[in-house]
Amino acid sequence: MLVSEGYSSADIADKLDSVGIEYTLEDDKFTLVDNEEKPMKKVAVFHEEELSILSCMSDIVENTTVRNDFHDTKFNKKVYTTCKNQIQYVCDMVGISPEQAVILSTILENRGRCNFDKHDLAGALGMSYIKLLSFEAPIKGLAEKRLINLVKNDVLSISKKAVDALASNKPYTIPESKGLTTPELLKEMDEIITDRENGQIEFDTMVDDIDALFENNTDAGLVQAAKSLGFDCKHSNFRDRVLFYVLVRRYIYNDDDNVTWDDFDDVLEDMSDVGCYRSDFNMERFELQKSKVVEPCTDDGMAVPDQFHLSDDAKAKLFAEVGGVRNRNRRTALKVMSPDDITARELFYNDAEGDQIARLTHLLSQESYRATCERLRKSGMRTGFSCLFYGSPGTGKTESIYQIAKATGRKIVPVNVSEIKSCWVGESEKLIKGVFDKYRALVEESEVAPILLFNEADAIFGIRQEGAERAVDKMENSIQNIILQEMENLNGILIATTNLTQNLDKAFERRFLYKIKFNKPEIGPKTKIWMYMIPELSEQQARELAEGYSFSGGQIENISRKKVIKTILDGTEPDFAEIKGYCGEELIEGKGGESRKIGF
Which residue stretches of 20-135 are H helix? Predict the structure, then answer.
């Protein structure tokens, strides 16, 4: 006697009929017929609201195979009746056929197995591989819905996203991913390519999914910039798209700006495909090469075989929303000094350098600078201004640049040489190239061209090494070659300072349009500097100090600072004798009692 409170007679009758159990029904009571030829089977009846996708799939897996008299596993065709309700529930929730429900359940059960392929699926279903081939259409249908991944060598898997959806009792649908920003789009690209590299999706699926990302997010800055460069996911060649997607992803997520074909091993179908791509690239058949979006990597000006990357101009446009051309540690980020942040100071020069500074300041006034550039352009000449300020320490080279910028309303972009000279071979070249790329972009977007300042330029403008063998020497030469080329193509204003002109390469000297030597101040200018720095001095006292000590302006400033500190600490003004004492302290006794002077 079978009593099932809460179930209708029709539900129970359907279940008994589905498993071939004979019964009689009277007054809503079932009597099972004891038939020795038909052993009684366990019957499971569920409320609809108690079902879940995973519980139904578990029941399907348990009833998919049976063992025969020889204990061989065979496919149980009765699963379609034994688990009729469970299969129907999965079909309704996920939107698949009964055959697909059985196949999907079996693949999910074996999700954790390494390299689970179609042969393994045939064994799990209790059928031969040849028999499984008749299920090829349902399997492909599951792959098209992204419920399973069918990759090379017939390996089958289910993505974590699909599993998470099924576990939440929700159907898995392919996300459209619309309205993404550039950072969000890049993140989706990385996930798709990572799935491909991990063998989770097919090659064609990877390309289709990234194509869809670009098609669905035409307002993203990356997509718009790509179109402006001539790249379009609808019209660009298939191989160009693959090359573009991989280079974009590796630059952003792998900090890789020197890509090789080895990086494509886990992306393309097989090694023969890698060879075809390499051959086409060497023959420059890619449209991305012709449009200068992709270019070979170089070492000391020479192309490196089988190494390539996105061009800096392309990166500046593509990644404008995420930093443009940059090094991952951001050490090449330009610091810009506004002319409003510069304190106006009066400077005192000897007659020769004073006249040169005045002419240069007039030339760099915006009206004069614009007119001069226009005339040079019409004459077919370079419009860039490269200037070298050289001379003894403390003679006002750097401060003169600040005051020129202040007077002409120009920003200053100081280059930190110590950060450029990285210890990593190959990185320094990227850093110096990045400085010029960013400065060029800054000039293009500025109404008034800023000044690119290289302080103590002899550190990177030095004499090049002939026949360099050491990696460090080669790096130095590469940096200098890059700077020489950039100075040739300069659009803007570069001013360099150095104390050691004897260390300057002759090729650099030729590229500086203006060269101004800063000598130590003569008696007249030096007297004015003393009076400017220490207003309490009389003209006679200032002249006495000027004649008595061969100091630079920097050294005189150092003494004035000592005077101020003394006043702050003691609350009293140092007298003239104490100031002369500070001058004595500024001298260092050399060998043999000879005094030598130090700069500031």
Answer: 53-62, 79-82, 84-94, 98-109, 118-125, 129-132
